[in-house]
Design brief:
The complex is a heterodimer of chains A (176) and B (104). By secondary structure, chain A is α/β, with parallel strands linked by helices. Helices cover 43% and strands 17% of the residues of chain A. Chain A is built from seven helices and seven strands, in the order βαβββαβαβααβαα. In chain A, the strands form two sheets. Chain A has a five-stranded parallel sheet. Chain A has a two-stranded parallel ribbon with strand order 1-2. The radius of gyration of chain A is 15 Å and the shape is globular. The N and C termini of chain A lie close together (11 Å). With 104 residues, chain B is α+β, with helices and mostly antiparallel strands. Helices cover 39% and strands 31% of the residues of chain B. A four-stranded antiparallel sheet of chain B has the order 2-3-1-6, sandwiched between helices. Chain B has a two-stranded antiparallel sheet with strand order 4-5. In chain B, helix 1 packs across helix 2. The longest helix of chain B is centred in the first third of the chain and has 24 residues. The N and C termini of chain B lie far apart (37 Å). The chains are: A alpha/beta (176), B alpha+beta (104). At the A-B interface, helix 1 and helix 6 of A face helix 2 and strand 6 of B.
Chain lengths: 176, 104
């Protein structure tokens, strides 16, 4: 099985590290796929990733056909999840946001991510797991991403499919 | 009955200078992340250092998932920010070095 990852704009991981982590390719937002900050503007590309905190911006991105939305606050409003259900938009869980921090802050983020997954399941929204790392300290191996996904409540097969097929699909739009 | 073990190849984002001090700090961070019961379940041991960044960690089979999660969650050693990547896991060290080659 081939695994893929998505990282934050402005960060290009070392190709040697990418290979060691077990990923076939790590896609960089803004380079491999257009990137939109949910707080501002719009993009003209057909495939783009939207990341941010605001629900309204994400709603607009889904309406404009975003390939994926990345809720950086690890929260998603129910209406956004409901709206994403009928679209092709995938909700990406940014794992680097969960592993950063320490103690109660991290516990709060883990709780939020679990809740995010629960909402996605409830409304039938497609979800996937990406590191969305901003630097090398935020990167993880594919094994670690899968284990974190399982910790959040995904099954083994769901986690593996998300890290392999779904992550590639977001960027290329084609099934391998 | 013999307890089954798994070996994990772990890479540090930063160079490991003082190995004994690193071991102490790493076990301390593992204990913080896993808690006493989790630590007992994982039963981690660093058994070999490879180069200045990699090491082989032994864990009980039933706690191997927790061990992988714990390495993902450790983001500092002492006062320094760092990251740990689990490159592979195997039942024997020989097979582990095949799945995660030492010279990669």
């Amino acid at each position: 099985m081939r695994y893929y990852d998505l990282v934050a704009p402005g960060f290009e991981p070392d190709p040697g590290l990418v290979g060691r982590l077990g990923f076939e390719k790590v896609f960089s937002c803004g380079k491999d796929i257009a990137f939109l900050d949910s707080d501002s503007g719009a993009v003209s590309e057909s495939r783009f990733v939207c990341a941010g905190y605001k629900g309204n911006g994400m709603m607009a991105a889904i309406r404009n056909g975003a390939s994926a939305i990345v809720p950086l606050g690890l929260e998603i409003e129910r209406k956004v999840a409901e709206y994403a259900e009928g679209s092709e938009t995938v909700v990406c869980v940014p794992v680097s946001r969960i592993i950063s921090g320490f103690g109660f802050n991290r516990l709060r983020n883990i709780g939020r991510a679990k809740s995010l997954l629960r909402v996605c399941r409830k409304y039938g929204t497609k979800f996937t797991f990406v590191t969305f790392a901003e630097n090398a300290f935020g990167m993880l191996s594919y094994m670690q991403v899968i284990e974190i996904a399982k910790m959040l409540g995904a099954s083994e097969s769901e986690a593996r499919a998300a890290v392999s097929i779904a992550n590639r699909l977001i960027v290329t739009g084609e099934i391998q | 009955m013999r307890i089954k073990k798994r070996y994990l190849m772990v890479e540090s984002a930063l160079s490991i200078l003082d190995r004994e001090e690193f071991k102490r700090q790493f076990y301390r961070e593992l204990l913080l992340v896993l808690g006493e019961l989790g630590y007992h379940k994982v039963n981690p041991r660093i058994i070999r250092f490879i180069g200045d960044r990699r090491f082989v960690m032994k864990a009980d089979l039933e706690g191997v998932s927790d061990a992988i999660r714990a390495t993902a969650l450790i983001n500092r050693i002492g006062e320094q920010n760092t990251a740990f990547y689990t490159l592979g896991s195997s039942g024997t060290i020989k097979a582990l070095t095949k799945t995660a080659p030492e010279d990669a």
